[in-house]
What we know:
- By secondary structure, the protein is mostly helical.
- It folds into two domains: about 10-65 and about 130-165, no CATH class; about 70-130, no CATH class.
- The protein contains nine helices and five strands, in the order ααααβααββββααα.
- A hairpin with a 2-residue loop joins strand 4 and strand 5.
- The two termini are about 20 Å apart.
Amino acid sequence: MPANLPYETNLDSIAKIADGRIEENDQFISYLRDWDNDALDKIAHIINNTVSPAIDCTACGNCCKTLVINVTSDEVAPLAAHLKLTPEETKEKYIEESMAGRLFINTMPCHFLADNKCTIYDSRFTECRDFPHLHKPGFKDRLPGTLGHYGRCPIIYNVIEEMKQQLGFLD
């Protein structure tokens, strides 16, 4: 069981702590440079499997409030069916397309967030299903991007802090 239970979930506290740990987190990236990728993935997955279920995302919803949510073209039709709209109506109302052809939800917070809950949960986008991506391989390569969300996601914050402890970074 992680040493830092209970987990920090207060967004104001996490954001404030994150502001003071920018240099420390940069040093953590350097500290992990020589670590084996597979070993780090295994540790990240074990910690994530403990932290994620202990944190209620519906008490936060910060990712849905503050992140640009990417949508694949294959996700438009199922969303449209869920909303009982045509794909064209769905795109017109909810989705924007960049000049490079990338699709994303056209508002922050997300249209589909109500009371910190996803109103299209069963039809939510792959990016939403996968966030905060800590279950995926390649933790070390994604760490700089992950740390970009360290001050806004209680799961990321607590997983990173537990990793620092377990890997002896803070010794």
